[in-house]
Amino acid sequence: MTLPDTALPDGEPDLEHVLGLVRDVPDYPQPGVLFRDITPVLADADAFATIATELASLVGDADVVVGVEARGFLLGAAVALVAGTGIVPVRKAGKLPRVAGSRTYDLEYGTATLELPADTVEPGSRAFVVDDVLATGGTAKAACALLADAGLDVVGFGALLELTALGGRDLLSPIPVHALLTL
User: Fold this and answer.
1) What distances in angstroms separate CA 82 from CA 71, 127, 152, one per listed residue?
2) Which domain holds residue 150?
3) Model pTM greater than 0.85?
4) Which residues contact 89 (CB under 8 A, 6 or more apart)?
5) What kind and span of H or E run contains 21?
6) How many domains does one find in the chain?
7) Is the residue at 25 inside a domain?
8) Is residue 178 in some structural domain?
9) Would you say residue 10 has pLDDT above 80?
10) What is the pLDDT at residue 30?
11) Any domain includes 1
């Protein structure tokens, strides 16, 4: 497999191009929330290759990449492919035929539940968790706790974008957190 050359002339990844593609959507999914839409990033082949390659470089010795529903699936699958690991989805409640465990958590605008599919990972496996945006940290914390409950060692968390003012990183300590972009 050959990925497009997404580096600038000095060899650095073109993350400014990626950031320029992130679209702000005010008042979505409810008034007062500023949604960061990464759909334009995913639609741009060079930007998508850049983020997949950069996040894959952080996977280290993980046995599996875990993508958090829903945009984390898209990123996680690309990251796993580049890193040479498998991908396991952490899904919203009611989407899996067999569930190994679940975790309910608070969102800034409600609650949600994540579920881990049964018979997909072995206890003791090392997992690198991927999602699109790290905001308040509720989803990330729930995903990591769900994996720990199943006996996995969460070796890192990677996101395309971190909204630093919301403090989500603090909820994940001591798990190493990596964000390609920060706002």
Assistant:
1) 17, 15, 22
2) 15-182
3) yes
4) 66, 67, 69, 73, 76, 117
5) helix 15-21
6) 1
7) yes
8) yes
9) no
10) 86
11) no
Helix segments in 28-155, DSSP class H: 39-43, 45-56, 71-83, 138-149
Supply the pLDDT for residue 2: 44
Instruction: Note whether 171 and 138 are within 8 A (CB).
Output: yes
Sequence length of the chain is 183
How are beta strands 153-162 and 126-134 bridged, if at all?
Answer: parallel
59 class by beta-carbon count within 10 Å (0-12 exposed, 13-18 middle, 19+ buried): buried
Q: Which candidate in 54, 71, 115, 162 is catalytic?
A: 71
Report the CATH number that the domain containing residue 152 is assigned in CATH. 3.40.50.2020
Amino acid at 143: A
SS3 117: strand
In a domain, 7, yes or no: no
- Say what the pLDDT of residue 110 is: 78
Helix (H, G, I), strand (E, B) or coil at 81: helix
71 a catalytic residue: yes
Q: Which of 16, 91, 98, 108 is catalytic?
A: 108
Give CA angle at 78 (119, 139), nearest 5°: 65
pLDDT one-digit tens code per residue, 43-85: 999 999 999 999 999 999 999 999 999 999 999 999 999 999 9
**Predicted local confidence at residue 7, as pLDDT:** 54
